[in-house]
Amino acid sequence: MSAESKKAHNFIQSLIEDAIAKGEHTGKVVTRFPPEPNGYLHIGHAKSICLNFGIAQTFGGECNLRFDDTNPEKENQEYIDAIQADVRWLGGEWAGEVRYASDYFDQLYAFAEELIQKGKAYVCALNAEQMAEYRGSLKDPGRNSPYRDRPVEENLQLFRDMRAGKYQNGELVLRAKIDMASPNINLRDPILYRIRYAEHHQTGNKWCIYPMYDFTHPVSDALEGITHSLCTLEFEDHRPLYDWVLDNLSVPCHPRQIEFARLNLNYTITSKRKLKRLVDEGHVDGWDDPRMPTISGMRRRGYTPESIRQFCDMIGVNKAGGTVDVGMLEHAIREDLNTRAPRAMCVMRPIKVTLVNYPEGESETLTLPVHPQDPSMGERQVTWSRELYIDREDFADEPPKKWKRLAPDQAVRLRGGYVMTCREVIRDAAGGVVELRCEYDPATLGVNPEGYKPNGVIHWVSASDSVEADIHLYDRLFNHESPDSDKDGDFVDHLNPDSLVVLSGARVEPSLAKPRQDLPYQFEREGYFFCDPARTEAAGRPVFNRTVTLRDSWGNGGKGGK
Ligand code: ATP
Ligand code: MG
User: Fold this and answer.
1) Of 102, 131, 469, 515, which residue is the least packed, with the fewest Cβ within 10 Å?
2) Are residues 288 and 361 in the same domain?
3) Do 140 and 203 fall into the same domain?
4) Ligand 1 cavity residues, CB under 6 Å
5) Does the pTM exceed 0.85?
6) Residue among 75, 492, 541 at smallest CA distance from 284
């Protein structure tokens, strides 16, 4: 993670500092980010990435990227590639090669045999239903499986036969022998291995048995020399099992598991399973749809890695949980883009303006700053000519009180240009405004007119050399604060029908014919907009995605920006 984030102290950092001070921790701090490649990463994962890579960086240690790939049916290479690209884009530099839990399948198998040899694991033939019944409940202790006391030799033979493909899916499992009466259900002889005839994206058809997460994770951590295994709170109840596995095996070290609260954002879903449903059912245009809370969606929308890291810093890391307002994320984006985004003018809904007193066929070049507060970003040129475009919404036939834009017989300044007054409104047969005939005041470039006052400043482009563009106005994907709270039905019922409005025929400054692709622009008075390279390529004209409005306008009709 780069140095711009001055990381706030979090409780995990304090724990490690204490351990170092007391001499309980010596040597390097090693963390890992362990995604399962069964979907794309989302904003919740960003929190975990910032934490794991951030802790490693703070203590001069290392962070591994390890795919937790024990469910071959749900995983694939597309996800693996996307996850690596996303982690890298966010600034995560993992130590060495990418790792896979499946790299350790041979060792995991050997450790499973070690448990069997020690009488700490057995092969069980209860089916899923029986197993659930034997497990008991929160109130009632479980009962021992009738297979629990098989002799070691028999367990070994059966386990080897499982591996050799002599049994069918679900026929046998390997279970840890811990305590069927434990108040912690995770300790009631959890499954360590199950049979799955499934081709694996890394190991092909080598295996027909796959280790469970609760067995794989501690062993993988130990094999990699992880010192601090940071995970979300739902694994707190699994920690005794994590420790049991490591205490009972001849692993090289015993990492410490520390839990923190998941990130929940309002108006947002952070569950890969549900995000996958949005993709599979076609509610969005893929995992990287700019409305998705995925890292790739946010990237396509114009969010910057800096702003996402800043957001993760703002929300901090704790054990308390709760829900963060998505407005905080949007705020972080605005803050970052306000200082860095180049300015440009885009007329979204063009209406023609003819400057009746400007000579036909002539034009002049006006110079505007790329950024009003940052001269180092340079200047840009726009053309002033007889025909211009302004936004339809910047003209009112009958202006409301305090109207700061154009209206009949009223004057307005065009940003970086002159003041003009509307003299005539040309209409079509239906009465719709098709053209405004205005008079400009040649004495007003950079100075205010004498004797009358322009209403405000609006943006514009020249008709002749502006470029046509398409604009995708994105808004929040859901219009319900907690779209996946179970009490209000299915989350897809809360999709915001106005989350995407496409405007074609917008006009942008000529310099935007080939838009930059590293940062969004601020379209003056409209918001921040980022070029969509794939769509631009396909359309043969620039296509921009709205990153965020200039101000928080959610709840005011969502139309923001002005
Ligand atoms: P999901 O429920 O979306 O599938 P997951 O936890 O199953 O998430 P993993 O791929 O296993 O997804 O997650 C990788 C890491 O990211 C884990 O350490 C996990 O705890 C962390 N993580 C996932 N979601 C969040 C979240 N909302 N906030 C913080 N960390 C998260
Ligand atoms: Mg998971």
Assistant:
1) 131
2) no
3) yes
4) 34-36, 44-45, 47-48, 68, 231-232, 262-263, 270-272
5) yes
6) 492
